[in-house]
Amino acid sequence: MIRKKIKSKVNALVRNNITRETVKEKLSHAPGHVIYTGNKAQKAVSIDVFDYNDDYLDEETLARLEEYHKDTDEKTVTWININGLSDTVALTQIAERYKLHPLVMEDVANTSQRPKLDEYSDHLFIVFKMLYYDDQNQLNVEHISLILGKTYLICLQEYDGDVFDGVRERIRHAKGRVRSNGADYLTYAIMDAVIDHYFIIIEQLSNKIEELEDKIYTDNSQNYSQEIQILKKEVIQVRRSIFPLREVVNKLEKVENHLVLKKTQVFVRDLYDHTIQVIETVEVYRDTIAGLMDMNSTNIANRMNEVMKVLTIIATIFIPMTFLAGIYGMNFEHIPELAIKDGYYYFWGAMIVIFVASLVYFKRKKWL
Amino acid sequence: MIRKKIKSKVNALVRNNITRETVKEKLSHAPGHVIYTGNKAQKAVSIDVFDYNDDYLDEETLARLEEYHKDTDEKTVTWININGLSDTVALTQIAERYKLHPLVMEDVANTSQRPKLDEYSDHLFIVFKMLYYDDQNQLNVEHISLILGKTYLICLQEYDGDVFDGVRERIRHAKGRVRSNGADYLTYAIMDAVIDHYFIIIEQLSNKIEELEDKIYTDNSQNYSQEIQILKKEVIQVRRSIFPLREVVNKLEKVENHLVLKKTQVFVRDLYDHTIQVIETVEVYRDTIAGLMDMNSTNIANRMNEVMKVLTIIATIFIPMTFLAGIYGMNFEHIPELAIKDGYYYFWGAMIVIFVASLVYFKRKKWL
Amino acid sequence: MIRKKIKSKVNALVRNNITRETVKEKLSHAPGHVIYTGNKAQKAVSIDVFDYNDDYLDEETLARLEEYHKDTDEKTVTWININGLSDTVALTQIAERYKLHPLVMEDVANTSQRPKLDEYSDHLFIVFKMLYYDDQNQLNVEHISLILGKTYLICLQEYDGDVFDGVRERIRHAKGRVRSNGADYLTYAIMDAVIDHYFIIIEQLSNKIEELEDKIYTDNSQNYSQEIQILKKEVIQVRRSIFPLREVVNKLEKVENHLVLKKTQVFVRDLYDHTIQVIETVEVYRDTIAGLMDMNSTNIANRMNEVMKVLTIIATIFIPMTFLAGIYGMNFEHIPELAIKDGYYYFWGAMIVIFVASLVYFKRKKWL
Amino acid sequence: MIRKKIKSKVNALVRNNITRETVKEKLSHAPGHVIYTGNKAQKAVSIDVFDYNDDYLDEETLARLEEYHKDTDEKTVTWININGLSDTVALTQIAERYKLHPLVMEDVANTSQRPKLDEYSDHLFIVFKMLYYDDQNQLNVEHISLILGKTYLICLQEYDGDVFDGVRERIRHAKGRVRSNGADYLTYAIMDAVIDHYFIIIEQLSNKIEELEDKIYTDNSQNYSQEIQILKKEVIQVRRSIFPLREVVNKLEKVENHLVLKKTQVFVRDLYDHTIQVIETVEVYRDTIAGLMDMNSTNIANRMNEVMKVLTIIATIFIPMTFLAGIYGMNFEHIPELAIKDGYYYFWGAMIVIFVASLVYFKRKKWL
Amino acid sequence: MIRKKIKSKVNALVRNNITRETVKEKLSHAPGHVIYTGNKAQKAVSIDVFDYNDDYLDEETLARLEEYHKDTDEKTVTWININGLSDTVALTQIAERYKLHPLVMEDVANTSQRPKLDEYSDHLFIVFKMLYYDDQNQLNVEHISLILGKTYLICLQEYDGDVFDGVRERIRHAKGRVRSNGADYLTYAIMDAVIDHYFIIIEQLSNKIEELEDKIYTDNSQNYSQEIQILKKEVIQVRRSIFPLREVVNKLEKVENHLVLKKTQVFVRDLYDHTIQVIETVEVYRDTIAGLMDMNSTNIANRMNEVMKVLTIIATIFIPMTFLAGIYGMNFEHIPELAIKDGYYYFWGAMIVIFVASLVYFKRKKWL
Fold first, then answer.
1. A301 — contact with chain B (CB < 8 Å)?
2. What are the phi and psi torsion angles at A142 (to 5°)?
C-alpha cells in the first residue's frame, strides 16, 4: 500500500505534465495556435479586475471572460486577473484586444512552458511557476503568466486561489507604494509575493529533510533509500521551477524598456537577491540529501557488519565446542578420557574456558 | 537470449555510425568530396517540391533527382525535399546548380556530422538530427540537412517518412502564416515540427523510466543494472542530438543575415525555449537514472543484508542447541543428567527457552 | 544521549533561521516593511558612536537608539555602531534620518539575508556574516550590515560583542592609517577584521578535521559517518557565508563611486585575496572530508572483511573435523577403525594434521 | 604474466614522457635552447620537399637535413617535411635560415609540449599530436609541429611514416584544391588528414569498449576493474591530445593574419566541427566507461549475493536437521521416541518435511 | 609506528601553515603591518646582489640586510636576492627605500599568501610557491616573492637554497639573453626556473603513483586507502600551488605596463604553456588516483567475495555430510541401514559422491 502511494507520487513528479495526446495535438497545428495542456478537469474560468490610481479604485469580479469589456486608459493601472486557462477561445480574444504577439497565448496555455521573460515592442511577457503542497502533501506546480503593458497587467493563473491577497489588501487600503506606482510596480509586487511563498515551500522541505534526517540518525535499522529518492525529486522539482526564475528576474532588473521604470528596478534587484537565496538553500538541501544517501548506505553496510558479527561470534564460540562434544560422542573402543572420574565435569570446565576466552578475544577486537 | 538482444542494442548505440571503411575512404579523398556514410541499404532516392506564394501553389513528386529541372524565381518560395542521400552524384549536381560551398554536400552526406549552422554569403546550412523509435523499439537517429537560400529551402533527409505532414497540410490549405511568409519562416516551421517531435521521444523515455522505476520500487529482488545502463545510454543519445541543436537554434535567432527576417526570429526565440525545455527534461532524466542506480545498489546491499539475517538467525539459534545435544550424546561413563528422570523433557524445555529467548533477542534487534 | 546532541546540532544547522511564522508575517506586509527575523531573545539594543578626524576624537555610548541625536558633518567621520536589531521602530527612524532607501532596513533586520553589496545614489549598503563558535562549540552566524555614506558609517550587528576592538584601539590611539582616512577606509578596516576572524574559524575547523582524521586513521573499528556529516555541514555553512562575500568584496574593489576612493580600493584588493584564500582552504577541507568519507566506508568494508575471515577460518577448520567426529559417532555395527588399537590417538593425529594444514593454507592466502 | 603486461602498459601511459634527466638538462640551460626530449632511439633524420604551384611540381628526398639548400620563393609553395627530431643542430640551423623565433625550435624538439598555436609576426607555429596503435596494440603519441610562412610550410615529425600520403597524392596528381591554393590550404589539408585519422583511433577504442562491454554483460563472474582502468586511461590519453587541439583549430579559424586567407578559414571551420565531434565521442566513451565500472561493481556485489544465498540455503536447511539428528543421538536413559516402532522412518519423514518447507520458503523469497 | 608517521605527515599537509597565534597577532594590528607567519626556526637572513648590464657585472653577498646600501641606477639591472623573511624590520626598511606599497611587505612575510600578481604604479609584485621534497620525502612549500621595478628585481625567499643557479651561471658567463635584457626578462628567467622545477615534482609524484599502482595491481590482498589518501593530498597540494600561478603568468603576459616589454611577454607566453602542461598533468594524476581508489574498493569487495566462497564451499560440502553422519549416530532402536553388511563402506561411498558432486557444482559456478 505504502509502495503504491510512493509510486504514484514519484510518477506524478516524473511525468512533468507531458502527455502524448497533447504533443500529438500540437504537432498538427501551426505555431501560435492556443492549446491548453494542463489539467482538463479545471473547467471554471473566472476573472477579477482592479482599476486604480492614487485617488481612484474600482474592483470587479466576473464569472466568464467574455463579460469583461472594460477599456484600459492612460490614467489608471488595470490589473486583470484570470483564473483558469481552459477557455482558449476567450484567451485568443484577449490576445487580439491587447494586440499581443501570436506566440504569447500559446505559452500562456502551455502549462509545461518553462519560466521566461519575452520582450515585445509594447508589452513584456513573463512566465513563472507557483509551487504549493496539496491536501495529500504532494508538491504541485501552478503555471502563472504575466503580461505587462503600459497601463495594464494581465495575470493568468491555472487554478483558483493564489498568494496575492496581501497585494490586493494593499491596493484596497492604499497601503505601501503600490497605489502610487504603475503597472511595473504591481508586477514586482506580485512576483515578490510568489517568491516570498517559495520560502514556505523551502521551509516545508526543510522540515521533511529534518524529519528524515532524524529517523536516519536515530533508527538506523531501516533502509530509507525510497524516502530519500522522493525527497530528492521534490528538491529537483523546486530547483527546476526556481532556477529559470533567476534568469527572469535578472532580465527584469536589466531590461531597458519604457515599460519598467528605473526606480522599480531597484526593487527588482531585491527580488533577485531573494531568488538567489532560495536557490542557494535548495543547493544546500541537495548536498544534505546527498549526505543522507551516504549515511543510509553506510548504515546498511554497518548493519550487515553487525549481523555478521553476531553470526561470527556465535559460530566461532560454538563450532569448536561442538567439535569437542562430537569427539567424546565417538564410539572408539578405547577413549581414556571417558573413563576418568568426573571427566564430564572437566569437560564442562574446558567448555567454559573456551567460552570465556572467546569472549575476551572478541572484547579485545571491539566486537562486543 | 535476452542478453544477446540487450548486447546488440547497446552496441548499436555505441557504434555511432563510424565504420573503419568509411573513415579509410574519407582519408584517401580531398575535403569536399561527397561520401555517403549512412546505411547503404537505403537505396531509393525520391524528391518532392512545393512551389508557393500567397496566391499560388504547385506540388510535384519525382522518383529521381535528375528529373528535377525547375528553376526557383524571386516571386515564390520553393521547398525541395529530398529523401535518401545515397545518390552522391545527384547531390553534387544540386550543389553546383545552387552554387553551394564545396563542403556543404560533404556534410549533407556525412550522417555522423553533428548538428550545426554554417553561414555562407548567399545561403545558410543547417544540420540536425531527427530521433524516432523503430519497430523493435530501438532509438534511431535520422540525419537531416536544411539549405536556406533567398527563395528556396532544400531539405535533405536520410530516410523516407518524416514529421512534416503538418507543415505540408498548412501549405496546401493556406493555414497559419506559412504561405504568406518566406523561406525563412518555412525553415522555422520545419524545425518546429522536429523539436515538437522530440517531446514524443521524451514522453516515451519518460514511460520507460517510469516502468523501470516501478519495477525497482516494487520488486527489489532483481538486479536491474543492465536495464538502467541501456536507458542511460538512450538518454545520452537524446542529449547528444539535442544539445548541439540548442546552439544551432540560438545562432539562427541571433544571425544577422538578409536571409532571415527579424519577424521570423521572434518565432525562432520560441523554438529556442522549447529546445531548452527538452534539454532540461533530459537533464532531469539523467538525475532520475542516477537515482535509480543508487536505488538498485542499495537494493542489492539490502538483499544481501536480508540473506545474512536469515542465515544468522538460523545459525545463532541452532548452533548452541546442537552443541548441547552433542553434550548429551557423549559417552562419558558418568553424566549425571542422563540418569535424571524426565531429563529428556527438561532438555527439550531448555531448548525451547533458548529458542524463544533468541527470537526475542532478534525481535529487539529488529531483525524479525 | 550523544545522538540527541548530534541531532539537535544538525537541525540547528539545517534550519537556516527560516521559520514559518516569520515568512507568513512577511507575506502579509508590503516590501520595505522592517521585520526582525532573528533570535527574539536578543532584546537589548545599544549604540556606540565614534566621531573623528586627524585631530579630533569623540566617543559616546548609549543604551537606547532614540537617545542618539548627533549630526554628522563634513569634517569628521562618524562611526555609528548598533548592537541588536530587535527595535525595528528605531531602525526605521535611522533610515529616515539618513534618507536610506526603503529596502535597506528590511535587509538589515532580515537576518537570513545573504551577503550582498547594493549601490544607492548616496550610500552603499553591505551585508555580510560573522561566524563564531559559541560555548557549546557550535558554529553560529551573526548578521552584520554596513551603511557607508559620505561622512558616516553605520554598522548594525545582531548581537553584542564583536571583533572590532582592534579597529577601535587604532582609532583611539591614532595608530595606522584609519584616523587620516575617510569612512571608506573604516569600512575596509572593519571588513578586514571580519575576514581575518574567518581564519580563526578556519583554524578551528582544521583542528576538528585533524582530530577526526586522527581517529579514523588510528581506530578504524568505529563508524564515523555521523561525525563526518556534521563536520561537512559546518564546512558547507562556512562556505555559504564566505562565497557571496567574495562577490561583495569584488564589487567593493570595482565600484565606481565617489564614496570609495581609489587608494582605498588598493587595500580592498588585498581583502579580496584573503577572501579567496579562505575559500580555497574551505574547498580543500571539502576534499579532505570527502576523503574521510571514502576512508570510513573502506574501513567499514575492511572490518567486514576481517569479521568474515575469522568466521571462515574457524568454520573451515572445525566443520570438516566435526564431520569426522560425527563419522566415528555413528552406530554402524561394523566400523573397523573403532576397533583399531590406539585408533582414538590416530584420530587426534588426523585432526591435528587438518588443523595445521588449514592454518598453513590461510597463512598463504594472507588471511592470518 | 598478464599482470606484468598490464602494469607496464599502464606505466607507459602514466609516464607521459617526462624523465628526470630531461628535466634536469632543461633546468641548466637558457630558455630557447633546443633539447630533444623524445625517444633517443629514433636516430634517423630524413627530409622530403614538395615545391609546387598551379603549373609546376618538384619533389625531392634527402637523407640529411644539411643537404637541403633550396630557397623558397614567392611564386611556389614549398612543403618541407622533416622526419626525426634528434638532430638538434640541424633544427637550429633551419630556425636561423627561416628567421624563426628562438622559442619555436625548443617546442619542436620538446615532445611533451602540448598542442598550441603561436602567432609570430611572419610565421604561425602549430603543435599537435598524432595518435596511433603500435604493433603491441598500445596507444602511442607522435609529436608533430607545423611552421607556416608566407610561401612555405615546414612540417616536423618525431618518427618516420605519417598519414599524409593522401595529401601527397593530391599534390602529385593535382587533385582537389591543394595545388591551386597557398601554404595555408596545405596546412589545412595536413591537419584535416590528422583529424580524420583520429576517427580511426576512435573506432578502435569503440571496438575495445564494445568487446569489454560484451564480456561484462555476458560473463559476470569476473572482476574486470583492471581492464576498465586501462581503457579509461586510453580514453584520457586521447582526450588529452584532442582537447587542446580544439583550441588550436579554433585559433586558426579566428586568426587575423595575412598568412591565412579568409577562404581557407571557411575550410578550417569544418575542421573545427570534426574536432568537436571527436571530443564529443570521447566524452560519450568516458560516460560509457563510467557505466562499465558501475556494472562491474554491481556484478561483484551481486556475485557475493549469490554466494551468500547458496551458503544460507544449505545452512538454513541442514543446521536444524543436524540438531534434530543430534537430539536422537543423545544418551538419555529414557527417550520415548527412540522406542517407537518405525520411529526412524517418522524421523526421515520429518526431515523431508523440513527440507521441502525450506525450499518452498526460499522459492517464495525468490532465492531459488 | 607506521600509522604515527602517516598521521603526522597528513596533519602537516592539512595544517597549511595557519596557527592560531599568528592569526591572533594579525587581528591586533593594522593592515600593512609586517608579520612573519612562517617557520620561526629559520632565523638566518642573507642577501646576495647581482648588478649587471651588457658589459658590466658585479656580484656581492652579505650576511645582514642592513649592510646592503647600494643604489640602483638606470644603466644596470640590479637583482637583490634575500633569503629568510624573519627580519621584519629590515623588510620594512627595504619597502621604504624602494617606495613599495604598504601592503607589499605584509604579503612578502605572510607565507600563507596565495600566488598573485599585483600591479602598482611603479612596481609589479608577484607571489608564488616553490615546491620541493625534503629529506623525509615530504612535500614542502616555499614562499617566494618578486618585486619588479624599472631597474631592479627584488627576490625574497623563505629558506636558503633555490633553483636559480642556472640563471646565476647565465648572468656570470653572459650566456643566453639575460645580460642583454632588462629586469623583466630576469623575472621571466626566474619564474621559468621555478616552473621547470615543477616538472621534477611532477615526475616524483608520477613515480609514487606508479609505485602504488604497481602494488595495487599485483598484490590485491592489502587495503591501500591510507596510502591513496596521502598521495591524493600531495596532488591537491601541488594543484593549489600551481593553479593560481596560471593566473599570475597569464596576467604577466597580458599586463600593459612600461615595466614589462612586449618582446619579453612572448617568452612569458611560453611560460604559460608550461604552466598549463603542469596543471593538465596534475589533473590526469587526480583521475589516476580516483581510478586507484576504485581499484582498491573493488579489490576489497573482491577479497570478501573470495573469503565468502571458501566459507561457502566448505560449509556447503560438509554441513549435509555432517547431518548424515548425525543420522547414523542416532540411537533409534531400529535403524535398518546400521545392520547392513558393509553399510559403513556404503556410507563413505555416499559421502564421496556428495563431495565430488559439490565440487563439480562449484566448478560450474566458476567458484573454483
1. yes
2. -110, 135
- The three cell numbers locating residue C109: 533586520
With contact defined as beta carbons under 8 Å apart, do E212 and E234 qualify?
A: no
Asked if residues E112 and E17 have their Cβ atoms less than 8 Å apart, the reply is yes
The phi and psi torsions of E203 (rounded to 5 degrees) equal: -70, -40
**Interface chains of chain C (3 or more CB pairs under 8 Å):** A, E
- pLDDT tens across A310-353, in order? 999 999 999 999 999 999 999 998 898 898 988 999 999 999 99
Amino acid, single-letter form, for residue E325:
A
Can you give the length of chain B in residues? 368
Alpha carbons within 13 A on the beta-carbon side of C332: 23
CA distance E155 to E189: 12
Residues near A2 by beta carbon (within 8 Å), at least 6 away in sequence: none
Nearest CA in chain A to B291: A229
CB C31 within 8 A of CB A267: yes
The C-alpha angle with vertex A79 and arms to A75 and A85, in degrees rounded to 5, equals 145
Q: How far apart are CA C318 and CA C311, in angstroms?
A: 11
Domains of chain B, earliest start first: 2-298 (3.30.460.20), 307-364 (1.20.58.340)
DSSP SS3 for A19: coil
* C156: alpha, beta or left? (left if phi > 0; alpha if psi -120 to 50): beta
d(CA B313, CA C274): 59
> What kind and span of H or E run contains E154?
strand E152-157
Bridge partners, residue B238, by sequence: none
Q: Which amino acid is at B161?
A: G
Q: Does E74 touch chain D (CB under 8 A)?
A: no
Nearest Cα residue to D36 out of D92, D81, D79: D92
From chain E, the residues in CB contact with D35 under 8 A are none
Beta bridge partners of A229: none
Walking along chain E (368 residues) 10 residues at a time, the average pLDDT comes out as 42 46 65 75 78 89 73 81 85 87 88 89 92 85 92 90 87 88 93 90 90 88 88 90 92 90 90 91 91 90 88 92 93 89 92 94 86
Does the global pTM surpass 0.90? no
Q: Which of E6, E31, E343 sits opposite C332 (nearest CB)?
A: E343
- Residue B96 burial (C-beta neighbours within 10 Å; 0-12, 13-18, 19+): exposed
The alpha carbon of residue D366 is apart from the nearest alpha carbon of chain B, in Å, by 7
Q: What is the pLDDT of residues E39-84, one digit of tens each?
A: 666 667 788 899 998 888 988 888 776 677 666 677 889 999 998 8
ipTM: 0.78
Query: Exposed, middle or buried by CB within 10 Å (0-12, 13-18, 19+), for A179?
Result: buried
- On chain C, the residues whose CB falls within 8 A of the CB of E6 are 217
A247, A34, A271: which is closest to B276 by C-alpha? Answer: A247
Q: Pairing between strand E57-62 and C124-133?
A: unpaired
* CA-to-CA separations, E311 to A363, C362, D336, E355, in angstroms, rounded: 24, 12, 38, 15
Question: For every residue of chain B, which 3-state class applies, written as one string?
Answer: CHHHHHHHHHHHHHHCCCCHHHHHHHHCCCCCCCCCCCCCCCCCCEEEEEEECCCCEEEEEECCHHHCCCCCCCCCEEEEEEECCCCHHHHHHHHHHCCCCHHHHHHHHCCCCCCEEEECCCCEEEEEEEEEECCCCCEEEEEEEEEECCCEEEEEECCCCCCCHHHHHHHHCCCCCCCCCCHHHHHHHHHHHHHHHHHHHHHHHHHHHHHHHHHHHHCCCCCCHHHHHHHHHHHHHHHHHHHHHHHHHHHHHHCCCCCCCHHHHHHHHHHHHHHHHHHHHHHHHHHHHHHHHHHHHHHHHHHHHHHHHHHHHHHHHHHHHHHHHHHCCCCCCCCHHHHCCCHHHHHHHHHHHHHHHHHHHHHHCCCC
